[in-house]
Amino acid sequence: DPWLDLEDNWGLGTIRRFNDLKSSNPNLKTLVAVGGWNEGSQRFSTVAQNPILRKRFALDAARFCSYHGFDGLDVDWEYPAQRDGDPTIDRENFVTLLADLREEFSKRGLLLAAAVAAAESSASISYNIPEIAKYLDFINLMAYDLHGPWESRTGHNAPLYIGPHDNTTNKMQLNVNSSVNYWLSQGAPAWKIMLGVAFYGRSFTLRSNNEHGVGAPTSGPGQAGQYTYESGFLGYNEICEKLAADKWNQCWDADQKVPFAYGGSQWVGYDNVESLSLKCDFIDQYELGGVMLWSVETDDFHGRCGEKFTLLNMLNERLFGSPANTSTTPSVPPSITTDASSPTRTTTTTQTTVTMTDTSTTTQQSHSSDSDEFVCVTMGYFRDPNSCAKFYYCDNNGSRF
């Protein structure tokens, strides 16, 4: 989003403001993510199978990170060989894509991470684990969304251990313990694994208010929250307010080591201070690299249920021995201006991210401002990156005219 992310044309400059957090924490490393659930798999698959497009993506991504002050990239392809990708070639092409990224990123001292499916049932389809581990600095294990309103019975979003209702091979894989042990057994180094934790819960509408345990029948997703506006999803800040103001009942699942709550026809499985503390114990036990969280804006950042940033502070205290520095406002330097003789930020630069992340925007041709050969990514008419008087037509086979 050029207006939100950049400063050109009176934009809000979110990227610069985000990276300015380093002024209050000099040890902070920032990564930009590309992909996500809404992006899907098709365009990743297209790029990964084409050597020219792979190299171009790696070069553009490295330049984007360096130009905007990021320390690296998080590749969030959800998921290789699944959804609208190619099940016959994506698994190995993902390895090749990461190898090309690693080569380019190493030249600039940039970090490379990937957000990956946690459970064996999905990870075994998408990843050659020992091979992708060679090229990644961090493996961000998305150990959440293991159950949700797409199912017909209540289930925890991110259970730590197996539960009594997990009575099939697939269900037995849907917990943190099984997921981490699978990745370790397949050759992922423990110190590269960042255990993903959720600052939200998955919610359901109960079929009967009288059945409200784990495994209770449901009629669909839970009602949308007052801040997140998404059915089947409640941020921790929304959950804690419902516990306090709406007098929801909070319960603890002794088998799976996570809480759930219900009120009337509504039910939610989530994480709180107690369950995240146990996950920190788990991280220590397996000597994992650390934690990845999704995401800070659904923490209780206003402190309406207690201290501000309840979950973030707890994680920092457990893992680093001190709470997060959430009270310091980073200084914001003056807006950057350029003249005609200096490099300028153009729409060519922003396409590096728009191409792969913005599903609401028409796919753009991705290229750099260098005098490299123009490469067709998608069908249509495109201006030459070095001449406003020259245009190309790209057909659906990648040829240009």
UniProtKB/TrEMBL annotation:
Cited Pfam families: Glyco_hydro_18 (PF00704)
A cellular-component GO term for this protein: extracellular region
One Gene Ontology term of the molecular function aspect: chitin binding
GTP-binding keyword on record: no
Residue span, GH18 domain: 1-322
GO terms (BP aspect): carbohydrate metabolic process; chitin catabolic process
Taxonomy, superkingdom: Eukaryota
Sequence segments annotated as region (Disordered): 323-368
Alphabetic keyword roster: Disulfide bond, Glycosidase, Hydrolase, Lectin, Signal
Xref: SUPFAM superfamilies: (Trans)glycosidases (SSF51445), Chitinase insertion domain (SSF54556)
Family matches, as PANTHER family: CHITINASE (PTHR11177), CHITINASE 4-RELATED (PTHR11177:SF360)
Protein family per UniProt: Belongs to the glycosyl hydrolase 18 family.
Protein name per UniProt: Putative catalytically inactive chitinase-like lectin
Organism whose genome encodes this protein: Aedes albopictus (Asian tiger mosquito)
